[in-house]
Specification:
The complex is a heterodimer of chains A (162) and B (148). Chain A is of the alpha+beta class and 162 residues long. Chain A is built from four helices and five strands; from the N terminus they run E-H-H-E-E-E-H-E-H. Chain A has helices at residues 22-33, 38-49, 102-116, 131-139, and strands spanning 13-16, 56-63, 66-76, 85-93, 122-124. Chain B has six helices and two strands; from the N terminus they run H-H-H-E-E-H-H-H. Classes of the chains: A alpha+beta (162), B mainly alpha (148).
């Protein structure tokens, strides 16, 4: 997948990830989260980046030979009765490269991939205190979905439960 | 989180003025459009002007025009000018003020805490929503609703 764009963002090319990009992708994540996770990125590349499954996307935005951002997602079918939809579960742009439309380009590119697979709904989920990415998705027109995320703290095995 | 009338009037005014930032509008003009009291709205606009969200333009044809940064200003930024969103009890079950002081039965306190935690959960989602939507995003949404 390759999606060159117009204007200032025209210098940015969105394409499928390659093995050599992984170090840059992990570095962007580290710069933002401050948590190194090399094993995680190797696993994500194996599952989403090797192109073995048509329904999975791992795209990067490249400018002047440097990776400036990435987006990862997949098509999911019938989760809790939901018809197939596109899921974006990671998107990030190097802090120094923001406000240039790179995030929008990445999202457009993955949505185009979903569209080609016949998907007409895209969803995502993120922490409600992640104002930066929440605002980004809102600015792209995303609205609250008809789902409520739930969680529970698992007690240690053998602990009594009421 | 239940918004007061003033807060809603402020949101209408901000979105109205931000939709055409080059144009100034009088309090009366906005009040007529949204069928609200001009007197009430004048106070709201004064607060918005003090916060730098709108600026007052004097003289013939004067009024207010948007002076904020539409991409940076969120709905929560406007709401916080009119609501004390961090007030104790916000999002919690109402207490029993006026009843004699006594040690409550633990089951009663447990019920209140449980109801309060659910209300707080709803409140947190509302706040996150208001924080994530900028004025620029709202203007896009308004355009889509008009054309949709």
């Amino acid at each position: 997948m390759s999606a060159p764009g117009p204007g200032a963002g025209g210098l940015v090319r969105v394409r499928n990830v390659q093995a050599g990009d992984l170090q840059d992708v992990a570095a962007i994540d580290l710069e933002i989260t401050r948590l190194p996770k090399p094993g995680y990125w190797a696993g994500i590349y194996q599952r989403y980046g090797t192109g073995r499954r048509q329904q999975r996307f791992f795209l990067v935005a490249e400018a002047a030979g440097r990776i400036e951002g990435f987006v990862i997602g997949e098509v999911r079918d019938w989760e809790f009765g939901s018809p197939r939809c596109g899921w974006v579960f990671a998107i990030n742009v190097r802090p120094g490269a923001r406000l240039a439309g790179t995030g929008s380009r990445l999202l457009e590119a993955i949505c185009e991939g979903f569209r080609r697979l016949g998907v007409h709904k895209v969803r995502t989920m993120l922490a409600r205190d992640n104002q930066l990415i929440l605002s980004f998705f809102r600015s792209q027109g995303m609205m609250a979905a008809p789902f409520i995320p739930l969680e529970i703290d698992l007690e240690p095995a053998g602990a009594d439960r009421e | 989180m239940k918004l007061q009338k003033n807060t809603l009037f402020a949101l209408y005014s901000v979105l109205e003025s931000a939709s055409r930032p080059e144009r100034q509008r009088s309090a009366g003009e906005i009040a007529r459009k949204y069928r609200i009291s001009p007197h009430h709205l004048a106070k709201v606009l004064h607060t918005l002007a003090q916060a730098g969200v709108v600026e007052s333009v004097r003289g013939v044809g004067g009024g207010y025009r948007f002076s904020g940064n539409a991409k940076r200003l969120t709905l929560m930024d406007v709401i916080e000018l009119f609501e004390n969103i961090n007030a104790p009890g916000s999002g919690r079950a109402p207490g029993r003020s006026g009843t004699p002081r006594r040690r409550r039965a633990s089951s009663e306190a447990g019920v209140e805490r449980a109801v309060g935690s659910v209300l707080a959960e709803i409140d947190e989602i509302a706040k996150a929503t208001f924080r994530s939507i900028s004025v620029a995003t709202m203007l896009k949404l308004i355009r889509r609703r008009r054309h949709g």
